[in-house]
Amino acid sequence: MIVIFGIREKLNPIKTELSDVIHNCMQLVLGMPEDKRAHRFIPMEKEDFYYPGGRSDSYTVIEINMMAGRQAETQKKLIKALFQEIENKLSISPVDIEITIKEQAPHQWGFRGMTGDEANDLKYKVNV
Q: How far, CA to CA in Å, does 70 sit from each of 11, 65, 104, 125?
């Protein structure tokens, strides 16, 4: 699951395109299937969204929650692809993008009535 935070007036107009960019990077780097898009957008009022100096109102936070198993190089490749593609497609500078990857053990995921370590029918690889 991916959670995206930003200032309402900046985030709402680009939600669809940003979701496409993020999912395309997930497919390219992690091999995620087309139907595994799980994005949650949290548009915030400017007065509720504090961010570091030197950033613009386009500042966007992307939290990627995934099952543990991806190699450090794979995760770095994903982060760099996101920086590049968001800048190319949406003209948001990498200085205005913050990305965190939060990994949880497969037994800490619950979906389709089971835990992640019980799922044996995933259409993608976790250990890449």
A: 29, 12, 11, 9
